[in-house]
Amino acid sequence: MFRFENESYLLALLLIPLLIILYFLARKWRASAIKKFGESKLVSRLLPDYSQRRQRAKFILYLLAFAAIVVALANPQIGTKLETVKRKGIDVMVAIDVSKSMMADDIKPSRLERAKQILSKLIERMKDDRIGIIVFAGNAYLQMPLSSDYTAAKLFLQTINTDVVPTQGTAVGDAIELAISSYEEGLGKNKALVIISDGENHEEGAMDMAKRALDEGLIVYTLGIGSEQGSPIPEIVNGRKVGYKRDKSGQTVVSKLNQTMLKDLARTANGKYFHIRGAKNEIAYLLDELGSIEKRDFEDKVFTDYSHGFQYFIALALLFVFLEFLISERRSGWFSKWSLFGEEAT
Q1: How far apart are CA 212 and CA 233, in angstroms?
Q2: Which region, left, alpha or beta, applies to residue 75 given φ > 0 means left and ψ of -120 to 50 means alpha?
Q3: What is the mean pLDDT of the chain?
Q4: Among 47, 239, 300, 313, which is most buried by a count of CB atoms within 10 Å?
Q5: What is the mean pLDDT of residues 178-199?
Q6: Is the pTM higher than 0.85?
Q7: Which domains does the chain carry?
Q8: How many Cα atoms within 13 Å fall on the side-chain side of residue 323?
Q9: Is 81 exposed, middle or buried (0-12, 13-18, 19+ CB in 10 A)?
């Protein structure tokens, strides 16, 4: 089992693009200053030993050292000791709709991102329960089996997007069926299914599967995400919005929240429906409902000891700093023999 002890430090890696931008802005400013001083050919003769290639190499080494230090602060760990522990809780399977309509942004930053935020908060507040993740659109797939490894759950959560399921649609019935088959046989009423969806374009058979879930002792909670007024569905290409989805007649497709279906689904399976309205803390109400479910005793295998890997990245950072120290921005007779960075002063 691999994890970072302090994941929040990894956010510092987002500074790298900013540092690169500042570096090129500094180079541009320097070039502009040189032009004011005199012609570039004349300046290059005045500074025959200056090498921009060496300067770039030093900057790259600085960046690599910075990245290694950030990873060291996050402290990568590998589980080394697996033990069986006793827990008392319930099994919660979460099914997330990843159809294209979940990219609508009537709930900021988008329906899907908000759904992932809700699930992330749910994971953070869990203690002794097991959690599993299902993704569904035209079909349903088990993204993560039931487990009390919350770190792994968050890693799986980060990989969820609208491309993980190849076929489009909202096959809620398939998600419920997959959830039922994911629980241990003979398990009583110590389990729940949480469905996060806009409920649009749902396939037939969802209500029949909800009735089956009730017979299996599975309580189904539905979280409706979106607005009844609806929102156009963005077309995303290479991470950029290039327009909105249109139907065959050329009209912009507007995706609306189907609360009626989601309410009926929850009612049929003895659960409750919650409407996600952006900033409202819906997760508290859901946790209250999950907390009312009777818990059971079970055994689970977890890593209780981890080996630390921060020292390797500190050593790597020191190596990069040492290499940077060896490289001069000016050509030297010793380094020029090796021709590591070329002989041009450009």
Answers
A1: 33
A2: left
A3: 82
A4: 313
A5: 84
A6: no
A7: 2-75+309-336 (no CATH), 83-301 (3.40.50.410)
A8: 18
A9: exposed
